[in-house]
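Batch manifest, entry 17 of 40.
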Amino acid sequence: MADHGDHGALQSLLMSRSLSDSELIEASATATDYAILPDANVVKIGGQSLIDRGSSAILPVVEELVAARRDHQLLIGTGAGTRARHLYALASQFGLPTGVMTDIGSAVAGQNAQILGYLMARHGVPVVGGSGFGAIPLYLAECGAAIFPGMPPYDMWQHSPAEGVIPPYRTDAGCWLVAEVYGAKNMIYVKDEDGLYTANPKSDPNAKLIESITIDELIALDLPDLVVERPLLELIRNARHATSIQVVNGLKPGLLTRALAGEHVGTVISAA
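Output type: C-alpha cells
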C-alpha cells in the first residue's frame, strides 16, 4: 500500500510524464487498492449451460439465489448461450467484424438478464446495465441482489482476437471484470459441469476433474478445451482483487449456496 509520499510522487509523474512512461506505470502499481463492494459476490449464470435448458434447470437456481440473498450480496451476471452462437455463425458467414459480433452477443446476454429478472421480479430483484450500475449499492442494500448482462460493453471497441473473428472477451470475462472493479469477495461461475476437466466431459468419458489449479499450471497444461473463456486466464493473472474464481455445477442443488459460504465445491482457479 502506498504512503502519502508515494501519492505525491505519482501525482508529480502524472502531471509531467506521458501515460506510457515506464516510471509512471511502475509508480501507479503502488497506488492504494480500494475495494468498492468487498462484501458482494459476483455469480455468473451460464447461458447455454443453464438458461437455455429451460425451467427444469433455471428455476431451482433462481430459488437458491433468492434464498442466498438473505445472507449474501449478489451481483448476478448472465451468459449469452446458444442463440449467440447461432448469431455468431450467421455474422461470420456475412463477413461481419468482431466488434459487430460483440453487439450481437451483448443483445442475447441482455435478453437472458431480462428473463432472469422477470423470474426474480416478485422478490424485488432489478436488472441493471450501463449507467444503472451506479445504483447497485442501493439495490444490494434494499434487496440483496441485482442482475446484469454479462457481456462486457466493448461494442465496436472489442479487442481483436489473435485468430478468427469470435469476440475473445465474452460473458465470463465481463462478469469477472465486475468482480475485479468492485473488489468483490467471490467470483463464482455456475455452469452444467462440476468444474474444470482435463478434456470436455460431454464428449470424452476419460476426462478427469481438476479440483484446484493455478493460472500458470493451467496455461502449461495447454488443454484443448476450458470451462471458462481462455483470455480470462491472463485477466486473473493481472488481478488486484479477483485473484481466484470457482466453477460450480448449477444442476446440483445446494452447491452454489455452499460456494457462497466459502466452501470449495467445484474447481478453484487462482492467480498463485
